[in-house]
Amino acid sequence: MSYEPAPDLLKNRIVLVTGAGDGIGRTAALTFARHRATVILLGRTVEKLEQVYDDIVAANGPEPGIVPMDLEKAGQAEINELVQALIENYGRLDGLLHNASILGERVPFDHYSIEQWQRVMQVNCTAVFMLTRLLMPLLRESDDARVLFTSSSVGETPRAYWGAYAVSKYAMEGFAKLMADELENTSTIRVNILNPGGTRTAMRAKAYPAEDPNTLKTPDALMPLYLYLMGPDSREEHGRTFRADQIGDSLLSEE
Ligand code: NAP
């Protein structure tokens, strides 16, 4: 049996996607909008966000919002500005997809650049905490919010030569589990971790330059899983890790 998301699954939901300009985040933003969400597109390259905006509007999706933000540099003041704008424009947040991340270096840890380590930890972990922490009042205004953390198999079990990427995802998973535990009986916010597995994007090509991209699934194939976890059908899921490469066909599109 495969998951059949309702065409208007995300109607009236306000969903923020980080790293919405490219790769999996771009496809998720377009897909959420196709299922009637109002999507807030956060990313560091404005032209890419504008292209996604145009594509959503051209497909008659709800008008999205654009938030140019570099998660490596954004501090509390900048994120609070975003929070203020969301309060004024929408009054709540029904979904938060933590998707943006950077790969960093693939070298032994004793060759790893310390500056690079700090950048990767900032984007992939600390900024994820900061955004979640400061967006909590808006998430609490929703009666059925979802927070989705995007991890990786090296986040579950760090492996040699994956450096700060593995450690940042491992720490991010720790935060997601702590948050899920704290909210389990005190909130309707549902928190889950999603591991997309090998997917045809620029990041994957950088991590595995010799691999033939045609052997990989596209971001589109992941979208039933993303829709399930972002929408009302996943009400009972909380504190779980969903591994796209292990869940079989039920939540993945056939290509
Ligand atoms: P991608 O193609 O490299 O896209 C990453 C997105 O994040 C881009 O839109 C990028 O913006 C944005 N981003 C990076 N640094 C940022 C910053 N400092 N501030 C704001 N936005 C920033 O990566 P992807 O493959 O789609 O990966 C999406 C998620 O899935 C990541 O969390 C990744 O770790 C995870 N994942 C991917 C795979 C895979 O095989 N692809 C496997 C496991 C896990 P720009 O476009 O401006 O660079």
Give a short overview.
The chain has helices at 23-34, 46-58, 76-89, 114-140, 153-156, 163-183, 202-207, 223-230; strands spanning 14-18, 38-43, 65-68, 95-98, 146-150, 190-195, 241-243.
Structural overview:
Strands 3-2-1-4-5-6-7 form a 7-stranded parallel β-sheet, with helices on both faces. Helices cover 41% and strands 13% of the residues. By secondary structure, the chain is α/β, with parallel strands linked by helices. It has 8 helices and 7 strands. The chain has one domain: Rossmann fold (3-Layer(aba) Sandwich), CATH 3.40.50.720. Bound molecules: NADP nicotinamide-adenine-dinucleotide phosphate. NADP nicotinamide-adenine-dinucleotide phosphate binds next to helix 1 and helix 7.
- The CATH C-level name is Alpha Beta
Annotated CATH homologous superfamily = NAD(P)-binding Rossmann-like Domain
Average per-residue pLDDT, rounded, comes to: 95
- Secondary-structure element order, N to C: EHEHEHEHEHHEHHE
Name of the CATH architecture: 3-Layer(aba) Sandwich
Distance between the amino and carboxyl termini: 16 Å
Overall helicity: 40-55%
Radius of gyration: 17 Å
Beta percentage is 5-15%
- The coarse silhouette is globular
Strand order of the largest sheet: 3-2-1-4-5-6-7
Largest sheet: 7 strands, parallel
The CATH topology name reads Rossmann fold
Which spans of ≥5 residues are poorly predicted at pLDDT below 50? Answer: none
What's the number of structural domains? 1
Broad structural category: alpha/beta
- Name the ligand types: NADP nicotinamide-adenine-dinucleotide phosphate
Q: What is the overall number of helices?
A: 8
Tell me the total number of β-strands.
7
